[in-house]
Design brief:
34% of the residues lie in helices and 24% in strands. The protein has 236 residues and is an alpha/beta fold. It is globular, with a radius of gyration of 18 Å.
Length: 236
C-alpha cells in the first residue's frame, strides 16, 4: 500500500528478544513454526497486509542467522541492532527508516512483535486503513474472555468488570513523526513505556482500536509454539 503522498508503509519488527521463557538456544524470532522462522512468518503476513518494507531489530551476534531467515523475504527487509529496552529497539528501527532513501519519505510506520508471527493480513490491513483514514495511532485489540481478578497488596482480590477491557496486539500503527516525537519525549523524561501507543497517548493523541485476532497470539512459552504450529498448518 503506497502512494506519492504517504510513501511506503514500513514496519519495524522487534526481534531482539532472547525468549528465555520459551527455552531453546536460539532467539525467539528464529524459532521455527511449520518450517519457517517466526520472523519470516511475520514478514509474510505484514507484506500480505500492505507493508512495503521492513526493518528488523535484532540482538548483536545473531547477524548470520537473521540474514538466512530474511534472505527470501517477500519484501525488502534489512536489520539493525536493538537496545536494552523495547523503546530503544524501536527508536533504532525508526532511525534506520529515516536514514534510508527508500523509506525516508514514509508517513506511516507499523511496529510489530516478531513473536506475534501469525497475525492475519486482514488485521495488518485494518491498521493501515485506519492510518490512511486519519488515525494518528492505531492498535488491534481483542475482548478479554477470561474472568479477571485484581489482587491487592493484602493478598485479597476482587473481580474486575472485563466488559470494558481489551487485550492489545501488534502491529501497532502510527504517523511516523508522532511516534518519533513520543519516544524522544519518553527518553527525555526518563520514562519506560510498556508499548508505543502509551508513549503516543502521553503526547495527547487518541489511539484508535481495530479488531485484532486470537490467531495473533504472542509466542512466549512452549505451549504457544504448539498452538502456533496448529494455526500455521491449518492455513496450509
Amino acid at each position: 500500500m503506497e502512494s506519492e503522498s504517504t510513501g511506503p508503509v514500513v514496519a519495524v519488527v522487534v526481534a531482539a528478544g532472547a525468549g528465555v521463557r520459551l527455552g531453546g538456544d536460539s532467539p525467539k524470532a528464529l524459532r521455527e513454526v511449520a518450517g519457517f522462522a517466526l520472523v519470516r512468518h511475520s514478514l509474510n503476513n505484514l507484506a500480505s497486509g500492505g507493508v512495503a518494507r521492513a526493518v528488523v531489530v535484532i540482538a548483536p551476534g545473531e547477524e548470520g542467522a537473521f540474514e538466512t531467515a530474511l534472505a527470501d523475504s517477500p519484501i525488502p527487509a534489512g536489520y539493525v541492532f536493538g537496545g536494552a529496552r523495547r523503546q530503544d529497539s524501536v527508536r533504532a528501527g525508526l532511525a534506520a527508516i529515516s536514514g534510508d532513501p527508500a523509506t525516508s519519505d514514509c508517513q506511516f510506520v507499523l511496529v510489530h512483535d516478531a513473536a506475534r508471527a501469525l497475525v492475519p493480513p486482514k488485521v495488518v490491513a485494518a491498521v493501515i486503513a485506519a492510518l490512511h483514514n486519519g488515525a494518528v495511532g492505531c492498535v488491534p485489540a481483542v475482548p478479554i474472555v477470561d474472568s479477571i481478578r485484581m489482587v491487592a497488596d493484602t493478598g485479597l482480590s476482587q473481580v474486575v468488570d472485563r466488559s470494558m477491557l481489551r487485550a492489545v496486539q501488534t502491529p501497532q500503527g502510527f504517523r511516523r513523526d508522532v511516534l518519533v516525537e513520543a519516544l524522544a519525549q519518553a527518553e527525555q523524561l526518563g520514562l519506560e513505556v510498556s508499548d508505543d501507543a502509551t508513549a503516543v497517548e502521553a503526547l495527547g493523541h487518541p489511539i484508535t482500536l481495530v479488531p485484532g485476532s486470537r490467531e495473533a497470539l504472542k509466542v512466549t512459552e512452549p505451549i504457544d509454539l504448539v498452538v502456533a504450529e496448529a494455526i500455521a498448518r491449518s492455513r496450509g
